[in-house]
Amino acid sequence: MAKSLLVFSVLFLAVVASVIAAPTPKKQISFNVCKKNDPNIDKCLRTAVQNVIPDLGEGYPKLRIPAIEPFELPSLEIDHGKGSSKSVSIDLKMKDVKINGLTSTVIDSLKTDLDNYRLSGKISFTKPLEITGHYTVNGKVLVLPITGSGPCTIVLHDPKLDLKEVVATPYEKNGKTYVQVKKIDLKLTSVKKLNVKLENLFNGNKQLGESMNSILNENWSVLLEELQPAFEEAVAAIAQDIVNKALQKTAYSDIFPQ
Q1: How confident is the model over 107-113, as a mean pLDDT?
Q2: Within 13 Å and on the Cβ side, how many CA atoms surround 229?
Q3: For residues 119 and 243, what is the distance between their CA atoms, to the nearest angstrom?
Q4: Could you tell me which residues come within 8 angstroms of residue 98 by beta carbon, excluding any fewer than 6 positions away?
Q5: 81-108: per-residue pLDDT in tens?
Q6: Which conformational region is residue 203 in: left (phi greater than 0), alpha (psi within -120 to 50 degrees), or beta?
Q7: C-alpha distances in angstroms, 202 versus 60, 80, 137, 194?
Q8: Do you find a cis peptide bond into 145, omega within 30 degrees of 0?
Q9: Gap between the Cα atoms of 181 and 100, Å rounded
Q10: Three-class SS of residue 202?
Q11: DSSP element (H, E) containing 75
């Protein structure tokens, strides 16, 4: 989910930055370089990325890494029909989105295939991921209609992500090999709990709004089934765009020297 997010952009961009980063005006960020022929490359890379994530809260403009605490999105849309839930069918559109908690990212595992330009891993968080913004919703929840527009908060407790596969392809520029990410496949594998608060439901009818929020929170697992696929797709697309912007600046051999 939007967590995600986002999460991979932090992970892979940190690797790129490890070679070409310099002190920022506000603070110095220190990166460890991992050599391609290191027999423990996966462990080296995982440690290097983990160490730098807390320092990326304010972003890194030199590599066009945006601030991740909070991470801001202009919009996020969840279309009904993509989820597996038969009890929830909603169109949820959000704007002015902010995601808090990404600096608590933990790289649980990381596996690289540098010769074939592939990477995978597992990610968790030590803090809840909180998504806020202004929403518009229409649809049905447990056969009950839902409609409204206003501020909203979605909180994911103890989310875990499986970065199943990141696939890149090489290309030549100025006599050097660069890479471009073509595919990011990530899945939300588990969430301990999901909390939702949608304000101003049913044109501000307080009683109906409170009842619907209670229903959503009591049935958070089926709500998650509806939201999950669209969140995963949106996060992967956002991460791919950010990663590729940074990769345009650095040759592959500079990212992973021999």
Answers
A1: 93
A2: 12
A3: 13
A4: 70, 71, 72, 73, 131, 132, 133
A5: 555 567 888 899 999 999 999 899 999 9
A6: left
A7: 42, 19, 10, 22
A8: no
A9: 26
A10: helix
A11: strand 71-78
Burial 131-142 (b: 16+ CB within 10 A, else e): bbbbbebebebe
Q: Which residue type does 187 have?
A: K
pLDDT 10s digits, 151-208:
999 999 999 999 999 999 999 998 998 999 999 998 999 999 999 999 999 999 999 9
DSSP for residue 60: B
CA 117 to chain centre: 21
Domain boundaries, the chain: 7-249
Q: How far is the C-alpha of 24 from the C-alpha of 57, rounded, in Å?
A: 13
Nearest to 144 by CA among 78, 219, 83: 219
Topology of 7-249 in CATH?
Bactericidal permeability-increasing protein; domain 1 (3.15.10)
76: three-class secondary structure by DSSP: strand
Per-residue DSSP letter, 219: T
Distance CA 108, CA 34 (A): 18
CA end-to-end span of the chain, whole Å? 36
